[in-house]
Write a structure and sequence with these properties.
Elements (H helix, E strand, L loop, with lengths): L2 H15 L3 E6 L5 E3 L2 E2 L6 H7 L7 E4 L8 E5 L4 H7 L4 H7 L5 E4 L3 H9 L4 E3 L6 H16 L10 E3 L2 H9 L3 H24 L6 H14 L3 E2 L4 E4 L20 E6 L1 E3 L2 E2 L2 E6 L6 H19 L9 H16 L7 H7 L25 E2 L2 E2 L7 E4 L2 E4 L12 E4 L2 E5 L4 E3 L8 H7 L5
Parallel strand pairs: 1-7, 5-6, 7-8
Antiparallel strand pairs: 1-4, 2-3, 4-5, 9-12, 10-11, 11-14, 12-13, 15-16, 17-20, 18-19, 20-21
Helix pairs in contact: 5-6, 8-9, 10-11
The structure holds manganese (II) ion.
Manganese (II) ion binds next to loops.
Length: about 425
Amino acid sequence: MNLSELKKRRRQLMASMGEGGIAILPAAQEHIRNRDVYHDYRQDSDFLYLTGFEEPESVAVLVPGRPQGEYILFCRERNPEKETWDGLRAGQEGAVERYGADDAFPITDIDDILPGLMENRERVYYTMGRNPAFDKHMMDWLNRVRSSARKGVRAPGEFIDLDHQLHEYRLFKSRSEVSAMRRAAKVSAAAHKRAMAACQPGMNEFEIEAELLYEFRRNGMTTAYPSIVGGGRNGCILHYIDNRDALRDGDLLLIDAGAENQGYASDITRTFPVNGEFSPAQREVYEIVLEAQLAAIEKTLAGNHWDDPHQAALRVLVRGLIDLGLLKGSVQSVLESGEYRRFYMHRTGHWLGMDVHDVGDYKVDEDWRLLEAGMVTTVEPGLYITAADDIPERFHNIGIRIEDDVLVTKEGYDVLSKDAPKDIDTIESLVGSGV
Ligand SMILES: [Mn+2]
């Protein structure tokens, strides 16, 4: 993200905090995978949103009205030996010159400096409970300020959760955020097409996962979340990520995979027949899910309630389940009894942004909030019919989900992931055509 946009975000937050406030945000912690190997490092989204700084062991501090500078970044010092092993660091000079910090200090000096920044501030904006080790540091620093009360220093009396205001900002995507998300969705769509083209009966799920990764990585992106590549029965397991079964002729393959571009996620699901041809039963169920998805997208409009797309999808799915003979009764009675949950047990969407299940409230007071331009949500109805004695065999182990990323605009909606095919004819001609 460019420096001026990052600065605008900090300004916006500081304006809402007022002059008596101080905001403190730690970078994400590093986590050991095994012995001296670490999990891939991913910066905390709130931290990244305000700083663009991707190094661990950093702390951002915003002090509105501080004459010597309002944005202070604590980060690791340059260290030629460590950098030889682990890569270059920005250092304090880089933090100021390349990341726009007004002031930067070594992270090792934070105990000496941070209490001074808290002096005479009334309110501390900090999200408690996410990082217990850092919570404890906060208490130590606060007590340090309190203990200097004799010198006429006032300690902050109020702790305010930083999440709420910040997440409200993050819910509305700027022009540059939308373009980062559109790029992520385009690359993800190309990955889904590549997976379809590569698929042949007898291949393994992990081979298809490799095709997805290939497309992400050759575009400089990573996965936004572990890819779900589930054939047949595995397609009915919502968070299936083992991806190590053989793909069988006659089964469906459900792929839920999205790339992350510059900290922004995409989230796309497609379902297609392993052998390139939907069976009549698979086609019937697929057409219901697709109709439900299109109905939900049509409701993803500014001024509608957050829940409207879900309700639209639900009605189509329930009607379809009754028509297939899998449920009995009227649409209304099935909606009321909740019996559909056997086949559709999740909601139709979630906010999408820096986090794949992005931040932002879904309700305001007690009511579903209204959709507004600049929000991005997924639209992802599905049907999952696991084998059971009371289900006709032709429907056994049909798991279908279709998921797109939808931007609410002033005029309507914009499907960011529209390059990923979902109509039956295009899918059947693409599957198995070769990469
Ligand atoms: Mn999703």
